[in-house]
Every structure is written in C-alpha cells, then in structure tokens.
Amino acid sequence: MRHSRNIILAAILVCCLWPGAAAAQEPREFLDQAIYQQAYQDQRWAISPQELDFLVDNMVGVLAVVSQPEFKRRHPLLGNLVLEQLGGTAHSFNLSTYSNRAQMTMERPGPKQIVYLAQVTMHKLGLSVSGQMLIWLRLHYTSPQDPDMRAEVTVAFRPASDMLATALKPVMASFQEEMDRLGNKAMVQIQDFLRLYQQERQGAFSRAGLLNQLALVNQRRLVQAQELKQRGAPGGQGLPGGGLGLAALALAAALVLLLGLALGWVLANRLRASRDQKLLRRSLRAQREQAVLDKRLVKLLKSRGVSPKAAAEAKEEHQRLNRELLQRLGRGPKDSRQANK
Predict the structure, then answer these.
(1) Which of 25, 39, 93, 122 is the most buried (most CB within 10 A)?
(2) 303-333 burial, b for 16+ CB within 10 Å, e for fewer?
C-alpha cells in the first residue's frame, strides 16, 4: 500500500514538472473526458518565472540529482525516493519506480502555460489502473524576474479504456478521495522542493550540475538501448513511440523529481509523528514519577505522627507550591494540573 501511494504521488509530481504528452489535444478537451479532476487555484511559489523555466527545461537533470544517495543524505526529506529507471529528454521521458510506470511529454501552449501529459500505470484499490494523467499549469506574474509567482494547477485522469472506467465506478468515491489526498500532499511537496532548490542553486542545482547529470543519464540510456538491441529486443518495448533515444530520456527525469517531493513530505510527517510520540512518553513518565513522590510524601507524614487531615493539607500545600513553580517555569495551569494527577 505504501509503495502504491508513493507511485501515485510520484506520478502527480512528475506530471507537475514534466513536459506534456499528447499535445495534440487541448487541455479542456481532456478535462471533458476525464473521470477525475481537481483544481488548485492559488499556489504561491517562491521562485521566479525564469528559474521555473530553467527547472522545467532541465527536468531530467533535476530528477537525476534528487535521486542520488549523496543528495538524499543531505536532504532527508527526499530519503525515500526510489527510482528504478529514468530516461529521455526534458520534453519526453519515461520513469519507472516500484511497479509504477509513466511515459511523459511536455508542451507550452502559451508563454504562461505548461502542459504535462503522462501515460501512467499504477496499482491502486486492488486494480491495475492505467490511463492518462494531465497536469495543466497556468502561471501568473508581471515580469520573468519576479521573486515569486502564483500558479493555478489542474490535475486530471482518464482511464485507458471504457472497461477500466466501469471497473472503477464502484470505488470511484475512494479513488477520488485518495487522488485528492495525494494531490494536496504533492502541492506541499513542491513547496519543500523549492526551498531545497534555493539552498542548492549554486551547487547541485546549478546549470553545470544539472547538465552534467543529464549527460550521465543520456549516456546510461544509450548503453541500455544498445544492450536491448544486442538482445534482439526493441529499444522502446512497452513504451509508445519505440526507440525512445534521447527524446524519451528526459521524460522520465521529471517524474523522479515529483516522486522525491512526495516521498520527502511523507518522511517529514513520520519524523514529526516520532518526535510527538517521544514527547508524550516523557510527559507520561514525569506524571508517574510525580505521583510516586506524592505517595511517598503522604507516607512520610503519617510516619511522623501527622494526622490524615494534616497530611492531606500538607499534600495540598505541596501541590500548590508545585503548581506555582511550574507556572513560574512557563507552563500553563492546565499542564500543572496534569502533572499533579
């Protein structure tokens, strides 16, 4: 289940930064045929339009960077990123992770629009779900040098066949709920990635760094294609437009970036939950220790010949002083009452 979730998140993220496939069809025509769609109207991104163009045009290099073990060690948010196969160019690439696959393309219908279209296969709700996923970005800014920008992001999915659409109908509510949840996580993950990008733009995400990674990915893809050719297998087996070459290589890179963003967000949640659990255990332990001390105090007073009433009054005075001390240390009355239970 966790792997399926990561795959879907990866597909959504990749679509958000991936050069769109099936440019022949207008986004609105796609939305008319989609069984699922969600619009994120007001996304604020701390990046200039110029820098966003740079990331999109070097998507394969970006995905290659964030999937490197060394980079993931520096940024634990991306520690769960698993990329099995990446290949293509920024305008057409393929990506494989676990049992999920995507072939993606990108186009720009206008100066402030980016359309990603992905042929995806993912395992969800006990089904093997395949079809097309659309990510349509509409950008709002006054100058390419603006330090930040606003974006409208539309996510849509349509199944590969009418039979699959029929199979999804009984679980459509669950499918839509899961896609909404993953889409919300993806939007947060994009914000996390942009913060990392600002930190590393002179290092791993510099122009030279991304182009070097793209060159390594292209070289690896050519070696893989040569090996497939020697085995007598078509280089584009299982992918539309066989013999992908460099054009298919960049398409896989964008998906890796989005997968990394999604997985990083999940990891951050787990780390926060772990810290909360530790704090809760410490609080409970402190409360138990306080109760033991209170009991010992009562026994001690009784052993000194103090009446039960006087012992109770002494205990109350002790608790009052304890509450006052806790308040002076900065804890609220509610916390101090819990500590004295």
Answers:
(1) 93
(2) eeeeeeeebeeebeebbeebbeebeeeeeee
Distance CA 94, CA 99 (A): 14
Question: CA–CA separation, 294 vs 314, rounded Å?
Answer: 10
Provide the pLDDT for residue 321.
80
What does the angle CA 23 – CA 29 – CA 35 come to, to the nearest 5 degrees? 110
Residue 3 has pLDDT above 50, yes or no: no
For residue 134, what pLDDT is reported? 92
Helix or strand run (H / E) with residue 50: helix 49-57
Sequence letter at residue 274: S
Nearest to 64 by CA among 265, 266, 263, 255: 255
For residue 127, the cross-strand partners are 124
Residues 195 and 269: their CA atoms lie apart, in Å, by 17
Report yes or no: 118 and 102 within 8 Å, Cβ to Cβ. Answer: yes
Tokens at residue 301, please? 């007073």
> What's the pLDDT at 285?
77
**Strand, helix or coil for residue 58:** coil
pTM of the entire structure?
A: 0.57
Across the beta sheet with 127-140, the strand order is 36-45, 149-159, 127-140, 113-124, 100-110, 85-97
89 three-class SS: strand
The two structure tokens encoding residue 13: 């993220």
Tens of pLDDT along 22-75? 344 688 888 888 889 999 988 999 999 999 988 888 888 888 888 888 888 888
Separation of alpha carbons 144 and 137, rounded Å: 16
User: 298-339: per-residue pLDDT in tens?
Assistant: 677 667 777 667 777 777 777 788 777 777 776 555 554 554
